[in-house]
């Protein structure tokens, strides 16, 4: 089971409760909820907030590919996965991403959760523009996209 | 032919609009588009090296939402997305 979404911060905030509800099942003995939040310092700069930009269609496509690969690459067949990423402006402490996974055993849940976030970092077209206390702002450098099919 | 370039991430700084509209010859490829955007940035932002670096390290996305190589041939009026280096999470 998979749920994915890109959530516009002007419309809604990411919800850990929604994630927990989605993955809840008596079929699974291990659940992990990972969340990423906006922090106050980066590269010795004081951060006020971050604007997230996203190519929504490609991002959702990448989430689905990553989920489907988990069966082939990690041999994790039975799983429930909830992935949401925010777009738009977020203040300090607000949640930018939630990855919630439920698996039969804890080993699978830890491996799967880590796999998903690392692959998102490499493959999902999402960008961050940091806003600083000195009124400056900068797009973070990032890494060239890795296309799994190439 | 006309090609629309949808801007994302750091490439949004290339224009006040969310799209660049480029005039290109027939049989245009992604490689030609990359060069044309470099030319545009070179003129509009006086050869801003940071912007040119972004263009050179960007991927491109077809209207059908596939990441495409430099040899990909553009169809008339196709909308292409520029995908600068990424970093979500």
Describe this structure as you would to a colleague.
The complex is a heterodimer of chains A (150) and B (89). With 150 residues, chain A is an alpha+beta fold. Chain A has one domain (2-136): Molybdopterin biosynthesis MoaE subunit (Aldehyde Oxidoreductase, domain 3), CATH 3.90.1170.40. Chain A is 30% helix and 39% strand. Chain A contains three helices and eight strands, in the order βαβββαββαββ. Chain A has helices spanning 16-23, 56-74, 106-123, and strands spanning 2-8, 30-37, 41-42, 45-54, 79-91, 95-103, 126-132, 137-139. In chain A, strands 1, 2, 3, 4, 5, 6, 7 and 8 form an eight-stranded mixed β-sheet that branches. In chain A, helix 2 (56-74) runs antiparallel to helix 3. The two termini of chain A are 27 Å apart. By secondary structure, chain B is α+β, with helices and mostly antiparallel strands. In chain B, strands 2-1-5-3-4 form a five-stranded mixed β-sheet, covered by helices on one side. In chain B, helix 1 (30-44) runs antiparallel to helix 2 (49-56). The mean pLDDT of chain B is 94. The A-B interface holds A 36, 52-55, 57-59, 61, 85, 96-97, 117, 120-121, 123-128, 139-145, 147, 149-150 and B 8-10, 12-13, 57-59, 61, 65, 67, 69, 81, 83-89.
Considering the chains and any ligands shown, give keywords for the structure.
heterodimer; A: 150 residues; alpha+beta; Aldehyde Oxidoreductase, domain 3; eight-stranded mixed sheet; 8 strands; globular; B: 89 residues; Ubiquitin-like (UB roll); five-stranded mixed sheet; 22% strand
Number of domains of chain A: 1
Helices of chain B, by number, come to 2
Give average pLDDT of chain A, whole number: 95
Task: Give the overall shape of chain B.
Answer: globular
Number of helices of chain A: 3
Question: What is the total number of structural domains of chain B?
Answer: 1
Strand fraction of chain B equals: 15-25%
Describe the sheet with the most strands of chain B: 5 strands, mixed
Rg of chain B, alpha carbons: 12 Å
Mean pLDDT reading of chain B: 94
| N- and C-termini, Cα separation of chain A | 27 Å
Number of DSSP E strands of chain B:
5
Unreliable residue runs of chain B: none
Spatial gap, N to C terminus of chain B: 38 Å
Q: Which class do the helix and strand fractions of chain B yield?
A: alpha+beta
